[in-house]
Amino acid sequence: MTDESNQEEPKPEFKEGEFDEHTSYSFFYFLMSGALLFVTLWAFWDDEYGRRGYKEFQDVYFKEQYVRAENDYKELTQKIQAKEQEIVAGIASEEQRLEANDEYEELAETAWEAQIHLDEVTGDRKFAKSRLDEYYYYYKKAMHEGKNFEVQLSKVHNTEKEIEEYNPVIVELTRKRDETEEKLLKFKAKKENLEKELAILVSDKPIIEGKMNYYKPYPFFWRAAEILQTVIPSYGKNNFQEITYKVDRCQTCHIAYDDPYYENHEQPLKTHPDVDLYIKKHDPLVTGCTWCHKGQGTATAPTEDAHGSHHEGDQSTGINEPILLGNFMQANCRNCHAPQVELEGAPLLSKGKKLFIKMGCHGCHLVEGYQEERKVGPSLLRIASKVDPSWLVRWVKKPKNYLPKTRMPHFGLSDEHTLAISAYIWDVSEKDYKVAETYEGGDPAKGKKLFETVGCQACHKVQGNGELFGPNLTRIGNKVNPDWLVSWIKNPEEYNSNSIMPNLRLTLEQASDISAYLLQFDQKRPQTGVEEKLNDPELIKLGKTLVRGRGCFSCHDIKGMEKEGRIAPELTAFGNKQVRELEFGDSHIPLTWESWTRTKLKKPDSYATERILDKMPDFELAPDEVEILLVLLKGFNGIKIPPQYQKNYSEKELTIERGRRLITRYNCRGCHVVERTGGHIQEFLSSKTQYPPPLELGNYHVGERLKGSWLFSFLKKPTPVRTWMKVRMPTFSFTDKEVRDFTAYFEALSPNEIKYEAEVHLKKNKDSIQIGVQIINYMDCGKCHDDGAKGIDFSIAAQRLKQGWIPKWMKDTRGMIPWTRMPNHWRKAGDKYVIPAKFSDLEDLEDGNVDSHIKHIGNMILSYNTAEDIDFEATLGGGDSDEEDESDEDEDEEEDEDE
Predict the structure, then answer these.
(1) Does the model's pTM come out above 0.70?
(2) Residues with Cβ < 8 Å from 111, sequence gap 6 or more?
(3) Do 622 and 494 share a structural domain?
(4) CB 159 within 8 Å of CB 135
(5) What is the tens place of the pLDDT at every residue in 776-801?
(6) Which residue, of 526, 554, 582, is where some domain finishes?
(7) d(C-alpha 199, C-alpha 205), whole Å
(8) 81-93: per-residue pLDDT in tens?
(9) Per the domain annotation, does 473 fall within a domain?
(10) Which of 62, 75, 378, 554 would disulfide-bridge 363, Cβ 3.0–4.6 Å?
(11) Residues of the domain holding 182
């Protein structure tokens, strides 16, 4: 290396006032520090408040709870202050009195010394027991080791004797102490009573103080907010068959959901509606909230996340579903209450279930729980013998032109397709069938009277009068063949054994009169050439394809279509369909499930295109019907709630539900009041004496009244009971199972346990029966009941009535059935029943004991057909039974009889 390379480079000369670094970063560091400070503060705020919005709500809640507790404490203190001071003063006075009493002081000293002595002896015995355990251990140890254990065994025996010697001493000392304390109690009784009274008086104070301490504010803020949650185990299983849990934290914000005080507050501090129904029966601490309301149960903030995503493309079933709002809040009730039709708290869902069946939606759409429902349309197996072919074509084309209220939808068919469907239905109709009767005319006036009296108006409307459970018959002359009509009215089962239409057991003449009455309002309007077209083979072939494609067999029995399946998509999980699964066609509506479904119900062909044929017909639903079905369809979500969280229906509840479905199916409420509703025919009857009896009304229960065996046979084959009534109980084509379900339903609604009664009429005391005869003759009950002209004949009572029901009926006749003709024979005064003056002779019979009199009457009624050696002419005599109290004679023509 050269010398030049070893030489160091000269350093620049340092001058005063100069710096090595010529660039300043102070401002940059200042900005970075400021940003860091801002982010730190923001992170703190976001963690404490931004992500915990529930703190604000809980702070308000805690503050109100503290103020409420504080006010309650002040109110309680003010309320009991005077009494508390009085009691405290009394206690102090008693203490001074006792301190000044030498005898009391001496007894207190004696009791104290006795307790000390007893404690000493008891302690000595405890030490002796400890020594015994020690000696016993060494005794056993020596014995197991094969050593001499006599010394240890001797110690064990001596210690046991020592312990035994303590026992009588302890008993004696305890006795002396107790005797002394009993004497002391006599002195302290008043003081102790005052102390107990004070404790009861201020018992609420610690509770309120505890509440105040719980909600008491900290120095700078109210008590710390917390996440409240319900953990629901056994929610389901994942793809690996592992038990999953569900967590709901809704009550973190909705913390006051069960407190009535917050009824008028804004959300989320608003009391849940109808706490008794929704909260007490569905405890959120057990079932959570999202099973009913949906939403994202684990989220607490922001509110939009907690309430689930309302973005139709960002919803995960069971996790991120949007909370149900408005009418949809009723939809999820079906998850746990599917078997129940009439559901309290969910009126729209209940109506939707009934409308779904009424419209026959289950015929085309498979829905779990509706697989066994019957078809809603009439049988078409013999349609050619029933209707005019021209009418059939017009009906298929536009049903509502004939019946504006019909359930038959409009398919929007072309003329060719209308003829084709009509041709196929006409062609497969049973050719060999002949109607049973021939219409030879009748008297319309008599027919009108029969129609308005025997019960037809409970189901059918004519000229604006009647119910619409069945079709309006005003224009039936335009539709049916007269021979078919008279045959149908006389015996519907002969034409269709599965028809809901019952047999009124009319004569041919009566059926002809009613037919004449109905046929006078309209007449057939035949169209030239229709029958020839209906026999066209090409049209018949096309019609078969159309009938199969349109699913006519879903509602109607059609020959050759018995094995066809449902033509429309399954709806079991339709409520959880995502928007991407729905076809909107060329429509311009919001891309939401609700908009799609509402439009589909209003105008089913809205999504049809040149490539998509929409098969669903137009039911022309009213706006309220659309909303009702929307709620039900939202409830078809396919969710399987674990059995332990579902409503556990008892056998009795299931029996009642089966009965209610039958009551609706056969329109029993058209004539009868059932569970406080029904009796629609009453509107069209001129006299209350013609009102059909109620089946369930307040305190009146037909299952409590009638024997199940008789009710079963009556429903299968009705026989005259109320002979004065013109409205008839018809003969329905009930199956044995349906009749059993009816009978079980009425018995299940009875408040009392149902006991089978067999031959009770054979077990009645003869003397009691004779007294019953005398009372009945004296009260002239036979005036109405002997021949059944005004009351039910006694001769059929034994086989019909349950003996426990008779006293209940006699004591509260018009309370049970307000419109009955039978009067209340005994007036209730307080807790007792009083014999009216007109039956004063009963006062001398068994000291006027009304219960005893009624028992004798019941025994006589039940034994009416079987009693022997009874003088049925005997009477007490003396009564003026022609004078009816409560103006009964005047009411005879206006009141119904039901005994």
Answers:
(1) yes
(2) 177, 180, 181, 184
(3) no
(4) yes
(5) 888 888 888 877 678 888 888 888 88
(6) 554
(7) 10
(8) 888 888 888 888 8
(9) yes
(10) 554
(11) 57-215
